[in-house]
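request received
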Amino acid sequence: MIGGNKDAQQNMKQAFESLFAEYSDVIYRLCLFKTSNQDVAADLTQECFLRLWKTMQGETQIEKPKQYLYQIARNLIIDHYKKMKSLSLDTLQEDGFDPKAEDSEPGLPTEIVLLRNAIEALEEDYREVVYMRYIEDMGVQEIAEVLNVSPNLVSVRINRGKKKLQEIFQ
Amino acid sequence: MKIREEEFNKAVNKLSQARLSNDRKDAMLKQFYAATKPKPDGEAGMIKSPWSFSFIAAHRYASVCAVVLMMFGGTAYASTQSLPGDLLYNFKVEVMEPLTLSAYWDEDSREQYKVSRLQERIKELQALRESGHIDSEASYASYAATQKNVTDLETSAVFDKDGQNHEVSAFINSYNSIAEEEFRVKTVINLDDGDDQEENKDATTTSVEVEVDLPDKVEEPVEEVIKEATNTVKKVEEETQPLIEETLEPVEEVTGSLTEELGL
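response:
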């Protein structure tokens, strides 16, 4: 029994670090795509993995970590926008917020903003699958698992999203 | 401002390469570990008893079993009152409910219990909303438990000849109506919406039969095709219903006056 608890902690730490190594960039890109701000994206990624770490500390078994992380990231992004909405521009400026500076750096390059606008112009059902398929290069089965829908439905949405994107292109 | 396909592909490549720097990742890991204190290693240095397999030890094990049983009973009772996001909620959903389900032998009772669990999920979410203690983790816990219930019911529930189960369908609709958009459960069950039920209750409503041109070769999943066909039927019904009612009104006026004249 000596050191048993320590071993468990060490194993948990290793499992967490391997999840962090595998998915931190994936979650960062999702947050960057949704918020268009590198600092905000990094903060949200950190918060997302902090929640995962705390959940693992509570010894809760996470069966599908990727699905869990995506869900947490989506919620954090929604919370971020809710917070932004609740703060008026005047209040933000009083606190030293400069909207021009926020737009220029550390925002996204124009082409990525255009890409984001094109994907965001799609209907909600297609947005996520198109993002996962093209930006994350995820397979149909993988997307189906993350979104908890059937692979057939994912295929249909990818094809339709593709057609709709073709309509958007010049 | 529109985007060209080449620009789109270029931007996809650029975004796919966006990564956190290694320094940032290291800093993050340090912060995670600093934010959570390690558990005290209470068992370190514990020495095994030389009497571990003796008669005395047997009594000791019995006492331990009794304590464990009492603790399990207490935990089980406390878990029944837990809500999504609570410490004992997973115990309730993952341990207590499957255990209770296994106590039912006949299929009817098992189905009834599963449906009652779905009803319980709605009550839990309502209670959370009323208490104001709802956050993303609680919502996710509720969503995960409900989705599990629904998936279970998809394979075991009894459906009528139209492929519907109004009770299950109504509960899923109720849950989705109070859940946030991100946490609505998804199902392959043919859900009937509230409007349809109202229409069925109204005996005076005229039904309209519409022929829908289904493609000769179904390339897409049947559920998508059925969904589209159902939407077409609803649309045509909505368009034709006022016309039918307008046409029927004068006929009813004539037949009404004739009936009065004939004293029927």
